[in-house]
Design a protein that fits this description.
The chain folds into 4 domains: 2-91, NAD(P)-binding Rossmann-like Domain (Rossmann fold, 3-Layer(aba) Sandwich); 97-112 and 168-281, 2-Layer Sandwich (D-amino Acid Aminotransferase, Chain A, domain 1); 127-164, no CATH class; 295-381, no CATH class. The strands form 3 sheets. Strands 8, 9, 10, 11, 12, 13, 14, 15, 16, 17, 18 and 19 form a 12-stranded mixed sheet that branches. By secondary structure, the chain is α+β, with helices and mostly antiparallel strands. The protein has 11 helices and 19 strands.
């Protein structure tokens, strides 16, 4: 089967990697000739995703299109082109419209009675300010008090931004997949952030008590039902004072967590998407529930200036073409632009073990091996600081 991946940045890397694991032939479309995913695909086509005529040439003879972009015009163009040419597009515009707006998502949480951080001004400090239409950590700012907030923004609330309580605690994510009212929650993962609130590490399986894991999965399925999802959506939440509070949803293919889940359970979300949108492929595979899951650690590193730094995934988006390496300094797999002659390189390390504790111990060995063989003297692994905005 031939699948086209529209976009070669973080989502494109994730989809291309898992599509190849599923045995699919991959065609990558992106304007940027050195996009990170270009080193992973079978074939690359340099293209403007808003150019309908160019799409006609690039998408000839593909079986499925998987969008890996958040560019609104590109998504509209892909949707129209696929409808007119009867090519399945693994994308649900209606669900995405809700999830791509934090204010719309927060309204949905309230409507469904799903616990979430209290909005400003009905909350105390610290508060977090997020752009309404951005995903991930882009544009996120945390303010410890009213003076810091007012010194940053003349208007409260500032246009196009969402303000809410900043809650501390461990972060968790779950994907839900399906369609036509039938949904399945997948494995829950633990997320760890760097000082800029960008995800640096994914751990699987997450060690949530059964009652919290069950309520988290039910909330994700409830949200999928509410938006009439066809495809995939994820829900992120913070465990604050013993309760999970929903932070955001994204009705698009995520980055990082699918690979961690794949290495922990063997469940391939790209293969499952193909089953949803191409029923002749046999439907969505049944996720593994209740069986023993392997420990999986996925994290991003950058080597620069004699230092190994664990960083948020943005460092991978800034890289050039990545390639898949097996047994990379002891890690089972890595996506990297490493070269023996390079003093500055990045990698997404994927390390497994029979348990999460074993995977973490192996991860420590990998870090020591990189430091030793590359002659690195520094190590940095930052986490979000307490709210302390400074001009």
């Amino acid at each position: 089967m031939v699948v086209a991946i529209a976009g070669g940045a973080l989502q494109g890397v994730e989809i291309t990697y898992l599509a190849r694991k599923a045995g699919f032939e991959t065609v990558l479309l992106d304007r940027r000739r050195d996009a990170p995913a270009t080193g992973l695909c079978h074939r690359f086509v340099a293209i403007d995703l808003t150019d309908r005529e160019a799409l006609t040439g690039a998408l000839r003879s593909v079986d499925l299109v998987l969008p890996a972009t958040e560019n609104a015009e590109a998504l509209r163009t892909l949707t129209r082109w696929c409808e007119e040419n009867e090519v399945p597009l693994a994308f649900h515009p209606g669900a995405y419209a809700v999830s791509s707006s934090k204010s719309a998502s927060d309204s949905l949480f309230r409507e469904l009675g799903i616990p979430a951080p209290a909005p400003w001004p009905d909350c105390s400090f610290p508060v977090v300010v997020k752009p309404d239409g951005e995903s991930g950590s882009k544009g996120v700012e945390v303010f410890p008090d009213g003076r810091a907030l007012e010194s940053r923004f003349a208007l409260i609330p500032p246009p196009g931004r969402v303000l809410q309580a900043y809650l501390t605690g461990p972060l968790y994510s779950i994907e839900v997949m399906g369609g036509a009212g039938h949904y399945t929650g997948l494995q829950i993962t633990r997320l760890e952030m760097d000082s800029a609130h960008d995800c640096k590490r994914v751990l699987a399986p997450a060690s949530l008590p059964p009652h919290l894991a069950g309520s988290f999965e039910r909330a994700a399925v409830k949200l999928a039902e509410a938006v009439g999802l066809t495809g995939i959506m994820d829900l992120e939440a913070v465990l604050h004072e013993g309760r999970l509070k929903a932070l955001e949803i994204d009705a698009r293919f995520p980055s990082q967590t699918p690979s961690a889940v794949y290495h922990s359970t063997g469940f391939n979300m790209v293969e499952a998407l193909a089953g949803i949108f191409l029923p002749e492929e046999g439907g969505m595979p049944r996720p593994i529930h209740g069986g023993p899951a392997r420990g999986s650690v996925l994290e991003h590193i950058r080597v620069e200036g004699g230092e190994l730094a664990v960083c948020g995934e943005r460092v991978m988006a800034e890289a050039g073409p990545l390639r898949l390496e097996v047994d990379f300094f002891g890690a089972q797999e890595a996506l990297t632009d490493y070269g023996p002659e390079r003093a500055d390189w990045v990698a997404t390390l994927m390390v497994q073990g029979s348990t999460l504790e074993e995977a973490w111990a192996r991860r420590e060995e990998v870090v020591r091996e990189i430091q030793s063989r590359c002659g690195l003297t520094g190590y940095r692994d930052t986490s979000p600081r307490e709210a302390a905005w400074t001009p």
